[in-house]
Amino acid sequence: RELIRGFLLSSMPCPSSCPPGLLALMAPGLALMATFSLPSQAGDRRALPVEKPPGVKGRTLILLDVNTKSPVRIISENFLSLQLDPSIIHDGWLDFLRTAAVSVLARLNPLNLCPEGRKSHLLFFCHQKGLAISLFSFPFAVDIVRSDIALDKQKGCKIAQHPDIMLELQREKAAQMHLVLLKEQFSNTYSNLTLTARSLDKLYNFADCSGLHLIFALNALRRNPNNSWNSSNALSLLKYSASKKYNISWELGNEPNNYRTLIGRSVNGSQLGKDYTQLRSLLQLIRTYSRAHLYGPNIGRPRKNVIAFLEGFMKVAGGTVDAVTWQHYYIDGRVAKVTDFLKTRLLDTLSDQIRKIQKVVNTYTPGKKIWLEGVGTTSAGGMNNLSDSYAAGFLWLNTLGLLASQGIDVVVRHSFLDHGHNHLVDQNFNPLPDYWLSLLYKRLIGPKVLAIHVAGLQRKPRPGRVIRDKLRIYAHCTSYHNHNYVRGSITLYIINLHRSRKKIKLAGTLRDKIVHQYLLQPYGKDGLHSKSVQLNGQPLAMVDDGTLPELKPRPLRAGRTLVIPPLTMSFYVVKNVNALACRYR
């Protein structure tokens, strides 16, 4: 008999009435992950009785209970957020953000939207037509703060209409640009991009009409002879945005630990900290942004040299930023295989990174919020029929659970719509498997994370070997925004990486409750490589350009054992639990 530790996770809820907008993918939630270790702190530690119920084989049954008294974590309402790549300016997709399909797919509120990437360092801002003032990056995160669907009428936002021939030409242009971007990425040489004031207006209009809050990352690559940051162009951009009364939060740079490969000289953590202090001073000089939020330093994977960089930054600017940010990509998209996404060792690599980041942050600024601002299953743009397939969802869902369980406030997914194959929506505006996963997560998951208790017979490890659990269970208070469920309900979601089905018996406070099942499986003959999914046996697809399908649950009778099919992801709403932790916000 072994207990499985409960980890938390969070996700962002979105009511069915969410306003059209591009990237509304955040939902607050509570989550727990099952691994083979005894919980050391979270939740009630009472062991469940593991006597086998009559007629049930012990090795096939798992008993599951949830601590409903209090949450172990409470994460941001905007926990699940998205990125856009700056290449949308170059490849033409910027003009298609306000199409009907993209607008309706944005009904994932609340969330953060962060356009950023390597090309974000190489953008020139043009205030006057034909005049490139300077370059800056624009990773920006967008928080959805409104849910009224009448935004288009109130603000004059219009849905763009594009003939089919224009869309076809745009796809051809984007395909050609994708090859150029891949060549730049593999050679590590990048050309500049020019962002005009009109393009910035379009980006902000899209965010504002979608009910999103914009987080914009200024370029940190412009350097003075003494290697300090040249802020002249940033000041021009700030003044322009302020003159338009744009409500924006700010960042400075993207993966600053890699600047040597881009500009031929490095910037250390303490120097970037001084640059952030300089940016904060600029913001305070402009009334519109005197209280604006500032995030950073958005470092890469926390290896030894990157940790040293972060320490230098935190010593100087730890108190300047509102949240500390970093990025993580699991595997190289050029060499990934579908079996990689089923390896529990890969799923667990993020946990060590979280501990490293938290150790540094808590040393210098205890309690400071931490964001994973840039996460994808694969790097190098991803791989077709792999990083955009059903199989990639195992990594994505586990990432959400692991981050929330360890107290990471926001996670920003790369990306919503751009080149490559890590996106949620393809260039035909068709939702991919991770989109449907994110949509369910947002609609069903609230910001409070609950501790779980799991008991059952498991095989014992051989000497010297560690068994990594292939059945991962998360629990949240059900989203307060979902009016189909009363407050006090609990949502479980489960990843089954086993090649056999697993049976779970709800016990304790969950016993004999009606359950709604949302089972996601691949649709079609491609199996785990499929880009389509089915919900409870029904394929998911847009009804038309402006209509998402209804996500219908399958009701399970009270007391029924949950049967989890092999290699699947599923959500279960346990109704009317009247959980004390979930009754109030």
Automatic annotation (TrEMBL):
InterPro entries membership: GH, Glyco_hydro_79
Domain of life, per lineage: Eukaryota
GO process terms (BP): extracellular matrix organization
One GO CC annotation: extracellular matrix
Coiled-coil spans in chain: none
Record Gene3D superfamilies: Glycosidases (3.20.20.80)
Single GO MF descriptor: hydrolase activity, acting on glycosyl bonds
Protein family per UniProt: Belongs to the glycosyl hydrolase 79 family.
PANTHER family per UniProt: HEPARANASE, INACTIVE HEPARANASE-2
Protein name: HPSE2 protein
Lineage, uppermost ranks: Eukaryota, Metazoa, Chordata, Craniata, Vertebrata
Name of the encoding gene: Hpse2
